[in-house]
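In practice, a research group might receive sequence data for several interacting partners and want a quick structural hypothesis before committing to experiments. The following worked case mirrors that situation: the sequences arrive first, and a predicted assembly follows.
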Amino acid sequence: MKFICSKENLLDGINIVQKAVSSKTTFPILEGILLEADDKIKLTGNDLEIGIECYVEADVKSPGKIVLNSRMFGEIIRRLPDAEVLIEVKEKDVVVIECESSLFEIRGMSPEGFPALPSVEKVNGIKISQKIIKEMIKQTIFAVSMDENRPILTGSLFEYKSGTLTIVSIDGYRLALRTLKPESQVQDYSMVIPGKTLNEISKIIQPVDEELTIYATGNQILFDLGNCTMVSRLLEGEYLNYSGIIPKEHETMVTVNTKELLACFERASLIIVNDERRYPVNLEISDDMMVITCNTEVGNVREEIKADMDGKKLEIAFNPKYFIDALKVIENETVNIYFTTNIGPCTIKPVQGDDFAYLVLPIRK
Amino acid sequence: MKFICSKENLLDGINIVQKAVSSKTTFPILEGILLEADDKIKLTGNDLEIGIECYVEADVKSPGKIVLNSRMFGEIIRRLPDAEVLIEVKEKDVVVIECESSLFEIRGMSPEGFPALPSVEKVNGIKISQKIIKEMIKQTIFAVSMDENRPILTGSLFEYKSGTLTIVSIDGYRLALRTLKPESQVQDYSMVIPGKTLNEISKIIQPVDEELTIYATGNQILFDLGNCTMVSRLLEGEYLNYSGIIPKEHETMVTVNTKELLACFERASLIIVNDERRYPVNLEISDDMMVITCNTEVGNVREEIKADMDGKKLEIAFNPKYFIDALKVIENETVNIYFTTNIGPCTIKPVQGDDFAYLVLPIRK
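A structural hypothesis for the assembly, expressed as tokens:
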């Protein structure tokens, strides 16, 4: 294998596929990037949960394959001058990297043991702007459960049904839901993507208008960005019936400024220096105001915020983290919050439309 | 005590004095900021190594003193809206913090136990631009020793002699020296400031042209920034005679581009993944070129760099970290490097003048 390509293009590719390379593993090959030279260069990273392939323009002198340790290869390319880089495999898997007056010889690994990416048939694809899918993941991923006892909840549901794509995360105390009606129409599907891989995928997707295509098959999902594709395994099992969880009725509804409410919750939680469960934040909802209070051994805090109320007055208590996480990712200037009783779930929704819903369970006092 | 001041001014003051507040201590009062209201507000942080005082403009309604936990106080003020803040001490050291519709009540501590800052007589002061003293600290602090067995080397020497201020750090393997001829002339002095406090001080000093004044007395140094003063204790003992360490003669001298040489050393050290001492970086100096090589179990690297040589050809080996640390803080485009023998020290100096000197000991092979 021998090829010449620009340092910049090569580094861009490495930075992307590195997201799918294991950093801690007992199999050195999984810490590697597979380089394949044909008419272009293909880089592949695969940690067996997520796999990423990336094509890089290059002048290929002779085809071939090699696996290089991802960290070492990335560091070397990153530090090279901004110029053409020559990469050549010599005898015994020794790889020469040459750029201007720098010359490296490092040991590569045989590509034999490198796990192939699962093949996903490119049918039933939805086109969505990268910016929007990145936002949708950000707005739901924080509610993914960390509890390995219920593995299905450690992922987010991706459901396409009757023209709407819905992403849902539930961790037992709260739910985050985001919907979109993409222009492309496909067959209905429902699958659960591991939270860890969604996190990596959202780092690769850029906040740009260019579209990517999402292909879903029985047990894989593929994000196709053109030069680069990401495949993720899915979580097996039945997801919760989220639509049954979100209350249809309410006793109290308030309309409130999103950023101001976030600031109130953030300040109120400052005096919780120990365990958040022992010290809930209290909400007292009346005609045109919400009073938010918290008392701990450190002191007490009282916040007032203007709120248009509809329905009954209410006193209710929450873990402030759950409100803070949701309010942080809402772009809308104002939101509606729907309360059932002081022991029933409350739901944050947009003032218009049904783009999102954040459900939070209160703390019983 | 009761006063009103702007959130912004108060936060600026807190951010500065927090640099002198202990984060881990068994004395809660040392984790606090002393607030004193008189005609202005004075904030004080003191971890017994470094003490910082900062004045903040305020409308003082009644004078008084209180100590507040630094982290809690800082977090609360940081999260308040950008508006006027009222602070008032109530009964039993309870402190009320009020800002728009936010109201905090937190427990303060009696100011009795708070350690007073040492008083430093403001005579014999040198005026230096903040930008320059910040740069001088940055260019010498990295060579401060971490070895507590020779406590005097865990600080930097500040020496004023015959119109020149010299800062020197030595860790046993290398030396960093930076000089300046300030306009103000004072009596000669020599003192050793702990590296840890220089690090904090350099964070507070801004890269601006405004001057600060350095006052030195027998056992304290004071940096006076006008609204804010920092006092540091000194290290006791005799510093090394640095001028005897720097060789006056050389056998080989090269002139080389600083940034390019830095990049060569950084790349060469990439393949040292274990212990730096086991794998030195080799320099082979000939007429118009330096060849830098390194061989480890990972592979090998060879770098060539243009270098104007004067004197004898030489092969010598170094711990690359020592070169990298020095080259990173040199602003000059080119530098001269003076070599004695392949077991004697080498010195990096400016092409013109004597603003700095970096001495590095080679590794015997």
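Before designing any experiment, note the following. Chain B touches chain A at residues 72, 75-76, 79-81, 94, 101-107, 263-264, 266-267, 270-271, 273, 298-305 (CB under 8 Å). The mean pLDDT of chain B is 93.
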